[in-house]
Structure formats: C-alpha cells, structure tokens
Give the backbone structure.
Amino acid sequence: MGEEGRYEKKPRPDSIKYFLNAIGRHDKVQKIEQIEEQLFKISKTNGRNISVHLTNIYIVSEAEVIDIMSGHDHIDAIVTISNWNSYSESGKEIAKANKIGLFLMNEFMGALNFEGNFFIDYLTPWQREQLKKGKRSLF
C-alpha cells in the first residue's frame, strides 16, 4: 500500500474537490474556503460563518471527536466524507454536547439550511421517518 494509510483519516484530494464543489453550489452558501488541509470556512448567505473539519474516518467515535476538537480552537461541524463512513452514537453525543454538528456528507448538506440547535441536531427525512416509526436508535 503506497499511501501508508494516509487517507485513513484525511480525505483524498478528489474527496476534497467534491466537498468544495458540492458545498459551493448549495443555495445557502455564499463562499467556501480551504483554511488548512482539513479545515474549511463556509460563509453562508445569511452572513454567518461555519468552520468545518473534513475527515475520512471510517467510524467517527467519541475518541475521534475529542481528538479533532483538541486540534482546533473552534469548529462548528465535523463531516466524514465517504459514503462508506459513519459515526457512533457516543461520537454524535459528545459532538452535540460541545455544540458541534457531526455529519455524513448528505446530512451536512441538509443541515446547512439551519442554524443553532436545528443545525447541530439536524436529521435527514429518512431519520425523521425512522423516529416516527418508533425505531429506538438511528445509529
């Protein structure tokens, strides 16, 4: 393996390009800037800014959330980019407790339509439907 695990946590260049393009086309986004390799600043059309850590962690757990938080003064969201990735319930809860949204890419696209707790607590239409059906956990 020539990459020596490089993309185990860090997004591939094509994933970063996809993220920039997808977010840049969102109707609530005015501008997106790559600040560091995994840190992005999103300027929304309402004047608010969102600081996002982009990762490729397969399952973002509580430990990964704490590690990511320790590397930044402040972030508003953590997005794991690959369609195969996910996060643990404890990861989601520790992020929420620190006022950080933890999202899959499709969840983040929906969450961008909201602010505050509605952003952090965003659920996709499928997740909301599962809650209505009485599913105990979505994770």
User: Anything to note?
Assistant: The chain has a mean pLDDT of 92.
